[in-house]
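Narrative summary of target 7.
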Amino acid sequence: MNYNTPSTGRLLISEPFMGDVNFKRTVILLCEHNTNGTFGLVLNKQLEYRLEEIMPDLGTLDVPVYFGGPVEQNTLHFIHTRPDLFDECQKVNESVYWGGDFERLKFLVSTKQLDSQSIRFFIGYSGWGPGQLDTEVSKNSWIIADGETHNFFEEDDQKLWRTVLKDMGGKFKVMSNFPEDPSLN
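Modeled conformation, tokenized:
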């Protein structure tokens, strides 16, 4: 696998000085990348809402909701580690799956078959048209990492960007320590 090109299941890490407020110091899981475009979810931007506040139909699963990206912020998406419980989910990588039947989700939550360590919810998503992300990567706006090496369901959201870069080693480990605003250094 070429680790310099985006693909489903990989992580996108924003370069240290990205100015776009939507993507500043973000880690994005690529859920789909093909000739039609790219769909991803920001993993490290937790919102102030809890799931039960915005989706009371889902019962009592007390989990945070994340900013998935700036596209279609009226949509709710979820990733999980339980393909055995969902018939209609899409494999993202060996341990993470995207989506599934919403009625089934409600049943699984009400019967307490899902917990906060196996599912994460997002409002909106990050999207790129055909070839758009590849162009951004070629301009060094994004760093690509292996999506299999991190259990972001358990890792500290506030440290995820830095942790992924450190774990990549070399120049990326150095980048992880760059200040957010170099003019204050």
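The chain has a mean pLDDT of 88.
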